[in-house]
UniProtKB/TrEMBL annotation:
<comment type="similarity">
    <text>Belongs to the HEBP family.</text>
</comment>
<keyword id="KW-0963">Cytoplasm</keyword>
<keyword id="KW-0732">Signal</keyword>
<dbReference type="InterPro" id="IPR006917">
    <property type="entry name" value="SOUL_heme-bd"/>
</dbReference>
<feature type="signal peptide">
    <location>
        <begin position="1"/>
        <end position="18"/>
    </location>
</feature>
<dbReference type="GO" id="GO:0005737">
    <property type="term" value="C:cytoplasm"/>
</dbReference>
<dbReference type="Pfam" id="PF04832">
    <property type="entry name" value="SOUL"/>
</dbReference>
<comment type="function">
    <text>May bind free porphyrinogens that may be present in the cell and thus facilitate removal of these potentially toxic compound. Binds with a high affinity to one molecule of heme or porphyrins. It binds metalloporphyrins, free porphyrins and N-methylprotoporphyrin with similar affinities.</text>
</comment>
<comment type="subunit">
    <text>Monomer.</text>
</comment>
<protein>
    <recommendedName>
        <fullName>Heme-binding protein 1</fullName>
    </recommendedName>
</protein>
<dbReference type="InterPro" id="IPR011256">
    <property type="entry name" value="Reg_factor_effector_dom_sf"/>
</dbReference>
<dbReference type="GO" id="GO:0020037">
    <property type="term" value="F:heme binding"/>
</dbReference>
Length: 219
């Protein structure tokens, strides 16, 4: 079925503040005290549609042919920020998820990857400023996203494969979404070897479509 536009509008105005909650009891966030909460709009056999409120993040950019190489350097830079490389010398708890902004590109070109750590609830209003000029604070807007989850390790190959598969399913469903960029999303420490959780997010550009195929009847 196609999701009712009126209900989508309702979810957009639920709140203008970030919803960052405790991870206790969460089946998604299992390694941090807090994670970014969401409203589940709908779920099909191929994807979920979620609504996220605006939230503040600390981010950095890195260039490479391969996501793994870029994110390894970016992670170390952001980890320094949360362990005291900020104007207040504050140690900040790790949260989930970690976002990686992945722009569509030919495989032979260098990509620009942006990694972001979610700021905990106590620092959403007034986060400490980074001391590294390549690290910065920014805010994501309210957004509806199409989501596909998968296990194992997040690599250039797996992310590209999962993003391509989700993109094809969204096109088949007649969904309008940003095809030029997606988020590669991680929930685990680099030290976690088993039962890892990753996701691919595409940004919805219109009322979310909650049918697996455009040939299905809408209600």
């Amino acid at each position: 079925m196609v999701f009712l536009p009126g209900l989508v509008g309702f979810l957009f105005v639920l709140t203008a503040e970030a919803k960052i909650g405790k991870s206790v009891g969460s089946s998604i966030c299992t390694e941090t005290k807090e994670c970014l909460d969401f409203d589940l709009i709908c779920e099909t056999e191929n994807y979920e549609v979620r609504h996220y409120d605006s939230a503040k993040w600390v981010s950095t950019q890195e260039e490479s042919y391969f996501m793994e190489m870029a994110t390894s350097r970016a992670f170390r830079r952001l980890f320094k920020y949360i362990t005291g490389a900020n104007a207040n010398g504050t140690k900040i708890d790790m949260t989930t998820p970690v976002l990686i902004d992945v722009k569509d590109k030919p495989f032979w070109k260098i990509g620009n990857f942006t990694m972001s750590f979610l700021l905990p609830s106590e620092y959403q209003e007034d986060p400490p400023q980074p001391t590294d000029p390549s690290v910065y604070l920014h805010e994501t807007p309210d957004m509806n996203v199409y989501v596909r989850s998968y296990g194992g390790w997040m690599t250039t190959f797996t992310d590209t494969s999962k993003a391509s598969g989700l993109s094809q399913d969204l096109k088949s469903a007649g969904a309008k979404f940003n095809k030029q960029v997606h988020y590669a999303v991680g929930y685990n420490s680099p030290m976690t070897l088993l039962n890892r959780r990753n996701e691919v997010w595409f940004f919805a550009e219109d009322d979310p479509v909650c049918s697996s195929s455009s040939s299905e009847e809408s209600v």
